[in-house]
Specification:
Helices cover 36% and strands 15% of the residues. One of its GO terms (cellular component) is nucleus.
């Protein structure tokens, strides 16, 4: 092999991080598991002093620093590891006045980055000034939330109490999201138990205050958020002085949950209670009475093209019959751009929907008669949601179901989460891990709760098996579970302050019991927990202690020795690597995590890709991400690549690389790359988890060898493309004009200059490539492009650029439209007797340039600067100077020409393209690419010596650079063309999203989906063999909706009497002659090959071979035949070929489908 992942290659920029640190460990007896996991401080409730009366109680000292607030935080004395272990609690230590925390000192946590954020977001919510939003940073989130919601979020003050794994996950997501201020609160100290999921803690922090340690790292995440910490007692003075809008409580006992929940409800503070216990999670939301939900589903308002409105009592609105309109009965709509019946424009109508293609708005007889045009747009109406306080909801819960295969699970977990505190009060301890005696006692507590103080039991389906599993694992802390619950809870906090999206009403429970061994999580009617003795519990403390008490030490060893490939280190990749570091994936000597990404870090990444900081901009994502997770867990063996994964890099990610992997995790943003990785995983028979997000939507698909279908087994329907004719001549939506503007940009400023640049690098080579690879029509266009770019009429000064831009305006927005109207006048009637300008065809009008029209001048400024940049001419965006210059220009009058062909529909466009192809084929006459044609092309191109000194700089479209005029040009062009066709304009943000093909994204959905992925990785590590053990998932946090299901098994096929799936193949080892190969299949598989191919190349086909050739080929090796027919040398790193075969059985009957062949010849 020429390259393996252990070595460096010339085209590979990588870092290898394999250093190992040895942490201090302590021996833990079985009895001490109780000490590590239970709360030994009975005064933790004193951290919350919230009287129900409105009389404020001053129990905490706050220091006011202007309008900004610095909180005094207790300073924990250093303790040794043993003392820290003895003071560990299963829930948070909320005592602000413990012996180790009796001295108060001012903790100044505002960094320069935070101060910049304070200034940007304003320092007081009482200010009427709207917070400014950094669109460069928040661009992807803005497409999810919208500007109004972002302004609301940027004014929010959030308190998060509890800085263990779940709390920090919620804090991280809210800070990335851009709240005004976040206070992180915790009275407890860091223990070993925290290290399995709190990625900002390490062994050196043992004994330090959790909030203080976490705050140092959280403050770096977003310079616009004022992040402070506190370990003070929380009372009403604290909440009022900090202007807390949202109180997020984590890891608290039930008494504190009740106390805080009721206080928040009474005082109008939005309350979120979130907890994880092992493989179980809980979220509760109370946003008070009359909470207004401004957007219930997160979807863009529906928009349709109006084709007719009846002038009658019903007022029937007709739209394009191509697709269903999607409106619902009772929806509200408004109209824009309707002609004739102008009374409907900008008015709201409540509609009735009699069919998928029409709706009614009521009596239109007093309106004008519809003449044409117009769009109809959905109007989203707010909904009111009322929430009960926590104490009331606890007795009468409303619960959201997330897994319909376990319908009774929410009710069981509702009781189990309450039972923890009751159990602890009754037995002065938490349930010990995997202890049958404690599990029995815990079940008795749950049984009592099910009927206690109720007229009827909460659930008739109390599941003893589930409850006992909860008891045996509830003291564990798992990073993937906290990623899931933390992502969802953070999104709920954002909903609370923005009204954007529908909140959870009111309890949400989630479990992942399928992660346990397959003989454990089965339903109780198949197996009982008593038949499983439990895992081997840890005998010494380590950072993985809280994970080991759920899965055991042996499992942890497997995780540490595993080798995983993370493909992509963007938003999903960063979260995945963080989870892997906490889980301990690849953290033993034999283990490894490989990560690759071709991209470098940009500013817009910082809002979601939390491993990166502003000082990392420009660096490679994979290398920075690897360094960051290495800092989180120094024992992690992580190697970063900067090479993409595709056929051209198979010498890097070769057989040796893939064969040693235990699994692959996709963190990609396009289907083509996913399908390629999927094919590689099928070929190497490796498990794969694919995930993706689109705004608040997220999905997970698990691919298990021989058990499930692959990612590529099913395909989403392709996105509908815009017809060519619509783009060219008949746009009717702003999306059409945006795509036209994007193509126009490339056709003017990118493609021609790139072609000219190629010509300048080597005229003869350019002519040879053009002659060989292009049709006659394309050759003509390429030659004209090069001549235009390098001609003597090219601009020499900026004034020349202004003149060119003014002529371009005239050509695009006046002359072309005038010619179209000349061919098809406004009153044109088709040969069918119908109005030409009707239905989806909007009649345009010409634009007359107005130097005082800002949009017109925007176009001139942008186009002039783009052209100047291309020719290395000094640029300016001085509007006054440009306006004065353009006003001097004389523009010749345009006269339409007769005989100009303008296609009316796509059929005519396709016919013209076919004609051009046929003409090109005739002209080639077998001489394409020969010396004569090359010479002819060179004669048509400029003389090289005449253009030798010209310097060209093509524009590569970059949407996120606001200084390069790219988006300025596309925005102006799209809106000017929209004005031509009386289409409603779009703002720059929308145009940027569509032109740049930007995928809306938010950190909450990203964090959540990676948690779901890592739960599936737990199953891979244990080699789960039942399809019902795995879960595909689809989540929409906006609704909210959670859907989980078993994966789909692979399609089964049959040859002779044998079944096979996509995972099966024929394995042939050793390089055989063709004759040996054929005999092998006859002997071993009762099949007679009659055609063998590799890709598009046929290696063997007796029906089309001369006898002499056939006889000779029979003695040649398959590998030799492959090189001959493909005319390529097999690279040294390739050890096997993929062959396909058509064959008969031994009786000569055709066998239709057989598996492919993995032919290993080296």
């Amino acid at each position: 092999m020429s390259t393996t992942p252990q070595g460096s290659t010339s085209n590979q920029d990588e870092i290898t991080l394999v250093t190992t640190t040895t942490a201090t460990t302590l021996t833990v007896s079985e009895q001490e598991h109780t000490v590590i996991n239970e709360d030994s401080d009975n005064r933790r409730h004193e951290a919350f002093d919230l009287p129900k009366s409105k009389k404020f109680k001053s129990s905490t000292t706050l220091i006011s620093n202007g309008s900004d607030l610095t909180i005094m935080s207790s300073n924990s004395n250093s303790t040794n590891v043993v003392e820290a272990m003895e003071h560990t609690n299963g829930e948070m230590n909320y005592n602000g006045n413990s012996e180790n925390n009796n001295s108060q000192a001012t903790l100044q946590t505002t960094t320069p980055y935070q101060m910049a954020g304070v200034l940007q977001h304003q320092t007081s919510t009482s200010s009427t000034k709207t917070p400014e939003i950094d669109e460069g940073l928040y661009s992807r989130q803005l497409y999810v939330m919208g500007k109004e919601a972002m302004h609301q979020l940027a004014s929010a003050h959030v308190l998060i109490s509890g800085m263990r794994g779940l709390g920090v996950e919620i804090a991280k997501n809210i800070i990335l999201g851009g709240a005004k201020s976040v206070i992180v609160h915790d009275c407890g100290s860091v223990t070993y138990k925290d290290l399995s999921s709190q990625y900002y803690f390490n062994e050196s922090n043992i004994g330090q205050n959790r909030a203080e340690v976490a705050n140092k790292h959280l403050a770096e995440l977003n310079s616009y958020v004022n992040v402070t910490c506190s370990s003070a007692t929380i009372d009403d003075v604290f909440l009022q002085k900090n202007k807390v809008n949202v109180f997020v409580l984590t890891d608290a006992n039930l008494d504190d949950q009740l106390k805080i929940g009721d206080y928040c409800h009474q005082h109008g503070i939005k309350f979120i209670n979130a907890n994880t216990k092992g493989l179980f999670g809980q979220i509760f939301c109370d946003f008070g009475l009359n909470f207004q939900v401004l957007d219930t589903n997160g979807e863009n308002p529906l928009t349709q093209i109006v084709t007719e409105i009846s002038h009658d009592e019903a007022g029937v609105v007709f739209m394009s019959t191509d697709t269903r309109h999607g409106f619902e009965d009772g929806s509200y709509v408004t109209f824009h751009g309707v002609k004739g019946m102008t009374e409907v424009n900008e008015q709201e109508f409540k509609i009735s929907v009699p069919s998928p293609y029409t709706f009614t708005i009521g009596d239109t007889r007093n309106f004008g008669v519809y003449e044409g045009g117009g769009n109809v747009i959905e109007v989203k109406k707010p909904e009111i949601a009322n929430f009960k306080p926590f104490s009331e909801s606890l007795k009468d819960p409303e619960m959201l179901v997330c897994d319909f295969a376990k319908m009774s699970m929410p009710a069981n977990l509702h009781l189990a989460f309450q039972a923890i505190s009751n159990f602890q009060k009754q037995y002065n301890t938490l349930p010990k891990p995997w202890d049958d005696g404690d599990a029995d006692k815990f079940y008795e507590v749950v049984e009592k709760l099910n009927s206690e103080n109720r007229e009827k039991v909460l659930t008739d389906e109390l599941n003893k098996h589930w409850i006992k599993l909860f008891s045996k694992t509830c003291t564990g802390d798992l990073c993937p579970m906290q990623a899931v619950i933390g992502g969802i809870a953070a999104q709920e906090a954002m909903k609370a302050v923005t009204g954007k999206f529908m909140p959870i009403r009111q309890f949400f429970y989630f479990d992942a019991i399928e992660c346990l061994p397959e003989n454990v999580f089965q339903p109780s009617n198949e197996i009982t927990t008593e038949s499983y003795m439990g895992p081997k519990l840890p005998t010494k403390t380590s950072r993985y202690y809280s994970q080991e008490i759920v899965f055991g030490e042996d499992f942890q060893e497997k995780l540490g020795k595993s080798k995983y490939f993370v493909v992509g280190s963007g938003a999903i990749g960063c979260e995945m690597l963080k989870n892997f570091a906490m889980m301990g994936v690849g953290c033993l000597k034999e283990g490894h995590v490989y990560v690759t990404d071709m991209d470098s870090i940009e500013k817009s990444n910082l809002n979601r890709q939390f491993l990166f900081r502003s000082w990392d901009i420009g660096k490679m994502k994979s290398t920075v991400a690897a360094e960051a997770v290495k800092a989180m867990n120094p024992n992690m063996h992580v190697r970063a690549y900067v090479d993409g994964v595709f056929p051209e890099t198979e010498h890097i990610y070769d057989d040796h690389f893939f064969e040693r992997l235990d699994g692959v995790v996709n963190a990609l943003d396009n289907v083509k790359a996913r399908q390629y990785i999927d094919r590689r995983c099928v070929y190497y028979q490796k498990p794969l988890v694919d995930s993706g997000t689109l705004g608040t939507k997220a999905s997970v698909q698990v691919v298990v060898p021989f058990l499930t279908e692959s990612y590529s087994s099913t395909n989403d329907p392709p996105d509908p493309s815009i017809p060519m004719c619509t783009l060219r001549n008949f746009p009717n939506l702003i999306e059409h004009t945006i795509e036209w503007a994007r193509d126009n940009f490339a056709g003017l400023f990118t493609i021609p200059s790139q072609q000219a640049e190629e010509f300048m690098r080597g005229p003869k080579e350019f002519a040879e490539r053009t002659a060989k690879n292009h049709s006659e029509y394309d050759k003509t266009e390429i030659i004209e492009n090069v001549k235009r770019i390098l001609s003597g009429e090219r601009p020499k000064t900026f004034a020349d650029c202004i003149k060119w831009s003014r002529l371009l305006f005239e050509q695009q927005f006046h002359n072309t439209i005038a010619q179209l109207l000349f061919n098809f006048p406004r009153d044109h009637i088709t040969n069918k007797g119908e109005r030409f300008w009707s239905g989806n065809k909007r009649c345009p009008h010409v634009l007359k340039f107005d130097v005082n029209n800002k949009l017109h001048l925007d176009f001139i400024v942008a186009a002039s600067n783009l052209l100047a940049h291309m020719y290395h001419i000094p640029q300016t965006n001085d509007y006054k100077l440009i306006a004065e210059e353009v006003a001097k220009l004389h523009i010749p009058e345009f006269k339409p020409k007769a005989g100009v062909t303008i296609h009316e529909n796509d059929d005519q466009v396709r016919a013209e393209l076919d004609r051009q192809k046929n003409t090109s084929a005739m002209r080639k006459n077998g001489q394409s690419g020969n010396d004569i044609e090359v010479e002819q092309l060179l004669n048509r191109l400029p003389k090289y010596d005449d253009v030798l000194d010209i310097k060209i700089r093509p524009h590569e479209f970059e949407k996120d650079d606001d200084t390069n005029f790219h988006m300025d040009y596309i925005t102006a062009t799209a809106n000017l063309r929209a004005e031509n066709y009386e289409i409603q304009r779009a703002d720059r943000s929308k145009i940027k999203r569509i032109a740049g093909n930007i995928i809306p994204a938010i950190a909450t959905a990203t964090a959540m989906v990676t948690g779901l992925v890592c739960l599936e990785v737990y199953k891979f590590i244990q080699n789960h063999q039942k399809i019902e053990s795995y879960r595909n998932g689809f989540v929409n946090l906006a609704l909210p909706f959670f859907g989980f299901s078993e994966p789909v098994p692979p399609k089964r096929q049959k040859y002779l009497d044998k079944d096979f799936t996509l995972w099966d193949r024929f394995e042939v080892k050793g390089d055989m002659t063709l004759e040996e190969f054929i005999e092998y299949f006859k002997r071993e598989h009762k099949l007679v090959p009659n055609m063998i191919s590799a890709g598009m190349s046929v290696i063997y086909s007796p029906h089309f071979m001369r006898q002499t050739s056939k006889t000779q080929d029979m003695k040649r090796k398959i590998s030799e035949l492959f090189e001959t027919v493909t005319r390529t040398k097999i690279p040294a790193h390739v050890r096997s070929l993929t062959l396909d075969m058509l064959c008969d059985d031994l009786e000569g009957n055709d066998v239709e489908d057989v598996p492919y062949i993995k032919y290993t010849f080296r």
